[in-house]
Amino acid sequence: MGTVKEPDFSKLREAILDPIFEDSRSLAAAIKWPAEKVPTELHDMINRLPKNYLFNPQMKHIFESMMEENTADDEPVAPRIEIRGRKDDQITPYWEFYYTNRIFHGQGVPRSNRRALKGCDCIGPCNPKSKTCACVVRQMAWVGGDKNVKGFLYNKNGRLVDHHYPVFECNDECECSEHCMNRVIQHGRKHAISITLTLNKGWGVFADEKIPRGTYLGIYAGEMILESEADERGKLYDKFGRTYLFDMDFYYLHSLADDQQKTSGNHGASSNVGKSVQVVSTYTIDAFHVGNFTRFLNHSCDPNCKITATYVNEPDLHKPTLTIYTCRDVRAGEELTFAYFGADEDDEDDDDEEEIDEHGQQKIKVQAVYRPCLCGSANCRGQMF
What we know:
Shape: globular
Structural class: alpha/beta
Order of helices and strands: HEHHEEEHEEEEEHEHEEEEEE
Low-confidence stretches: 1-7, 9-31, 259-280, 345-368
Number of strands: 16
Mean pLDDT: 80
Number of helices: 6
Helix content: 10-25%
Largest sheet: 5 strands, mixed
Strand order of the largest sheet: 1-4-9-11-10
């Protein structure tokens, strides 16, 4: 039998470089790209190769390089993510999605109105005790008078102190320095993680070092689509028992808005405070075609991570950045997980597509996909959905 010619892996590495994002500077820019601009050249090349090439050890390095190159602009100092597959199974995850930390806009989703973005005029880092900092005023307007919150939702070490409220970071319109304590997600991930093939849960994400409670890990990147489009995609995903749909309807925004009696003034993203804000399930993030490592986060009934709504350069309250933070100290080697059904859900059987827990924590949008839970925690419910 003749031998199969080895593919030219150097060409695959060259295809990793993405000219679309050459002018991007940071995650803070949060530029939303049309979904039709999703690059597919590298993936098309690899998926045309004979299947046995997918088991070549070089594929691991190509996948890792692809992740690093695609996030070099927005997370230049983030530790490299290692792929840990198995030779007798998968070397890498399927080449079915474009790796990025950005959000692509689907058809019908409006671009961000940057003219509506307001910032502070602080000199140097913002002072969380300031009475005049517009960003402090904006954040405090959304905590419902919670006296445990002191100015910002981050402490001096850049760790989230409360998961119950939306986070409003300083933005590109702010005069404060880049070292301001209210700039966290825009500086990127700081801790080493790996994407590892588990024995019975598919791919998962693991901490390669100790990670303190309240640490920013990443955003749930993907394609922002209308709810109507998400419903149609969900029907197809359900047939295959997989879904990466995540609704963006944090109900606490409505309840907190009704409690506020402040005028819009110069509060930026909190300009709706004091008005009746109708928060509906308008948009959904789909990480099937576009996403980052967060699409591999598995479910746990006792999770060590939570998803919180965060705003940086987006004045539209209906379009938060879905941000993953640790909710307790994480050991080195421990799997990073969050609760697909929400952190504080009652033990009732629910058939609804989407739900919000009592603190406004979002739950993954699922349509009749019932799977046994394999998290192994002491309080495991037995099924994920």
